[in-house]
Design goal:
CATH architecture: 3-Layer(aba) Sandwich
CATH superfamily: NAD(P)-binding Rossmann-like Domain
Number of domains: 1
Structural class: alpha/beta
Strand order of the largest sheet: 4-3-2-1-5-6-8-12
Radius of gyration: 19 Å
Order of helices and strands: EHEEEEHEEHHEEHEEHEEHHHEHH
Strand content: 15-25%
CATH topology: Rossmann fold
Shape: globular
Number of helices: 11
Helix content: 25-40%
Largest sheet: 8 strands, mixed
């Protein structure tokens, strides 16, 4: 991509901050969306709850990236927090999509976050982007999340939905909680351990997002997961190898349901998701295996 001006919502999060650093390092201009008055040309004010975006400040952006969303694992899933999870995704996406569509000269691409939660529990069955949505809270939320970008799609802006898997990183996400447990020798499989985890190294997540920004022929849903999903039991073994610790403390499914409530379903569900469109488009993974992804995070 030639030197570009790229607006990023969610630039303070795990993935957004890594993406912004990568873009800036390569000479691109990153404009961050902030929930307060902008303090310079590198900021754009917005308020996703009110579905407000300072639309005029988006003028001249070659791309708009929306990675803003409340963390799935940040709190127990009370009704109030489930509403926060939904609103943080859908209201913000709708606001940005409408702002993009309203510009006289819209950006070349609107890249919007999504998640493999779209597919629900796939068991041992491998799925790619052609699979339908699953059942339950997360799949229905992901469907609404992507539908909220309708204004950008209808205006003719190339719109891509990055359906991300579990990002392997020490700085945030699920693995940020796993690393301290395993380092202390308290790690173990979750539930039966037979459920598939579709992971992706943070390095590859950022590289894939940049690939989506550059690939003019890609639109719609694209799975951001490594090509070889592994079971939770295999993740547990890999973590033990990487940290040289025993993995003797399994967390039984009933205990997880008591501790985590409805969110336990997200931990125990099996999602065997393949990045078919990413691979077909020529993307190459730097860390395709679970041992490599964990090693990259620790390195």
């Amino acid at each position: 991509m030639k030197r570009s001006r790229i607006a990023v919502a969610g630039a303070s999060g795990l993935i957004g901050s890594a993406l912004a650093r990568s873009l800036v390092a390569d000479g691109h201009e990153v404009v961050r969306l902030v929930r307060r008055p902008a303090q310079g040309k590198d900021e754009i004010e917005w308020d996703p709850r009110r579905q407000y975006v300072h639309t005029a400040a988006l003028a001249g952006c070659d791309a708009v990236v929306n990675l803003a969303a409340a963390g799935i694992g940040d709190h127990r899933w009370t009704d109030a927090y489930k509403k926060e999870l939904r609103d943080s995704r859908i209201l913000g996406t709708a606001a940005l999509a409408e702002a993009v569509a309203a510009l006289d000269e819209p950006p070349r691409v609107f890249l919007n976050g999504s998640a493999i939660g779209y597919y629900g529990d796939t068991g041992d069955r491998a799925v790619d982007e052609s699979a339908p949505a699953g059942d339950g809270f997360l799949p229905s939320m992901c469907v609404e999340w992507e539908e909220a970008a309708g204004a950008a799609v209808e205006s003719g802006v190339r719109t891509v939905f990055a359906r991300s898997g579990l990002v392997v990183a020490r700085e945030g996400g699920a693995w940020a909680r796993l690393f301290p447990l395993f380092k202390a020798g308290l790690g173990g499989r979750l539930g039966s351990g037979r459920q598939y985890w579709s992971f992706i190294a943070l390095h590859d997540e950022v590289a894939a997002l940049r690939h989506l920004l550059d690939s003019a022929d890609l639109s719609g849903p694209v799975n951001l997961t490594a090509p070889h999903p592994v079971t939770n039991r295999e993740v547990t073994a890999a973590m033990g190898r990487a940290l040289h610790r025993p993995t003797l403390f399994p967390a039984p499914a009933p205990a997880l349901r008591v501790a985590l409530g409805e969110m336990a379903g997200d931990v125990l569900v099996s999602q065997r998701v393949l990045p078919a469109r990413l691979l077909e488009s020529g993307f190459g993974f730097a860390f395709p295996g679970i041992d490599e992804a964990i090693g990259a995070a620790l390195g």
